[in-house]
Amino acid sequence: MKNFQWSVAYVLGYLLCHVVAVYNPVREHSGQTFFDGWSYYGNVDNTTWGNVTFQDQANATSRGLTFVNSAGNAVIKVDNTTTISPAPIVNRDSIRLTSLDSYGLGSLFIIDAVHIPYGCSVWPSFWMYGMEDTWPLAGEIDIIEAINGMTNNQVALHTTPGCFQATNALQTGHTLETNCSKAQGCIVGESKPNSFGPGFAQAGGGVYALVMEPTGVSSWFWSRADIPDDIASATSSSTMDPSSWGTPSASYPSSACDFEQFFPPQNLVLLTTLCGHWAGVPSIYRSTCNTPTNSCINDNIFGNGSNYANAYWEIRYIRTYLNASLAAATTTSASTSPTADPATSDSAQPTKGPSNRTSSALQGVESPMFIGIVSSIIAMLFTSALAMTTW
Question: Where's the GH16 domain (predicted)?
Fold first, then answer.
């Protein structure tokens, strides 16, 4: 009986985060229009305090830090040509983009990248956060994030107290932390090879996907050779059905986190910072890089920048989708005036809280069809469990 009860709990945990839905396309960022629909930050890194100055769109374009290459892919890079002399405070130029759309529960995100920034001092991330309130009151989800010489990606959720990764989460990755309110968030490390660093680039890149539903958050990674056929052959108008993608790399069932409480609409962010409050922490830097003085700033930021030749994103597309069973409402506004975030932490892996408060809104309501299906299965399983108690 105990084994059956455990099996019921395990199956329920899977069902609560398993995606059974078709997603309709909302927006595609690709090719010559990739940079439409983004706000350039245009300020220093005042959230994770990396040694960068994020450029505005005019400077980024004129200096060749954001452009579309001959392959039709978007390139977002760190300055690797300016010579910086030693000084008490030094910043190298980089890019932070924030989407003008925000996305509620019932959304799917897919990014196809050929190259992700890597190298000592390099801290790239593709993530989302709620702009309705001061961080972390509106949540944060990290889809792609790693630093320095790491070779595997990490997915993480950040919330106020009360949200956890369930112990019965069905995933292929390995859980590093279950409490989402800790400074580093609730983290799952990718177990598949080539999810970050030189391996990702040498494999031709790959695809990351993340579903955000009231029933949970699931994230997948595929190296270039393993991308599912429905994604590999998709166009900007194709619908998506994640139920065919197999077990996710990271899974956060709603059995241990109320996603409607902790995650209002989220805005996408794509950036690369340098050093800062994770990559630049001396003990972490020494464990993930081997440089002459073991100093993140001295051994990397100073100099002619040639060491940042691999500190760039090359992206084929970013596509967003909405659960076909959800009703959506869209409004539009935009802001490009960042303000300092007082909530940043001096922890090993801090969050990258908000600095840009307004955006368009794109959010849905919970799917009664899916809840009905899950409820029916739950009732069936517990009826079976009660019957077994009489045997």
Answer: 4-287
Q: Which token pair is 98?
A: 């924030």
Confidence label for 63 from pLDDT (cuts 50, 70 and 90): very high
Q: How confident is the model at residue 282 (pLDDT cuts 50, 70, 90)?
A: very high
- Which residues have CB under 8 Å from 34's CB, separation 6+? 68, 74, 315, 317, 318
Nearest to 48 by CA among 105, 124, 162, 156: 124
Average pLDDT, integer, range 83-96: 97
| Tokens 């961080």 sit on residue | 135
CA distance 80 to 118: 13
CA–centroid distance for 219 within its chain: 9
The answer to whether residues 134 and 342 touch, using CB atoms and an 8 Å cutoff, is yes
Question: What is the reported pTM?
Answer: 0.84
Write out the two tokens for 343.
């909530």
Q: What is the dihedral of CA 201, 207, 213, 217, to 10 degrees?
A: -40
Q: How far apart are CA 4 and CA 73, in angstroms?
A: 51
Closest among 128, 73, 125 to 99, alpha carbons compared: 128
Q: Answer yes or no: is pLDDT of 379 > 50.
A: no
Q: Report which of residues 89 and 331 the model is more confident about.
A: 89
The type of residue at 54 is F
3-state secondary structure the chain: CHHHHHHHHHHHHHHHHCCCCCEEEEEEEEHHHCCCCEEECCEECCCCCCCEEECCHHHHHHCCCEEECCCCCEEEECCCCCCECCCCCCCEEECEEEEEEEECCCEEEEEEEEECCCCCCEEEEEEEEECCCCCCCCCEEEEEECCCCCCCCEEEEECCCCCECCCCCCCCCEECCCECCCCCCEEEECCCCCCCHHHHHHCCCEEEEEEEECCEEEEEEEEHHHCCHHHHCCCCCCCECHHHCCCCCEEEEHHHCCHHHHCCCEEEEEEEEECHHHHCCHHHHHHHCCCCCCCCHHHHHCECCHHHCCCEEEEEEEEEEEECCCCCEEECCCCCCCCCCCCCCCCCCCCCCCCCCCCCEEECCCCHHHHHHHHHHHHHHHHHHHHHCCC
Q: How far, in Å, CA of 186 to CA of 142, rounded?
A: 10
What residues are annotated to the active site?
140, 145
**326 residue type, one letter:** L
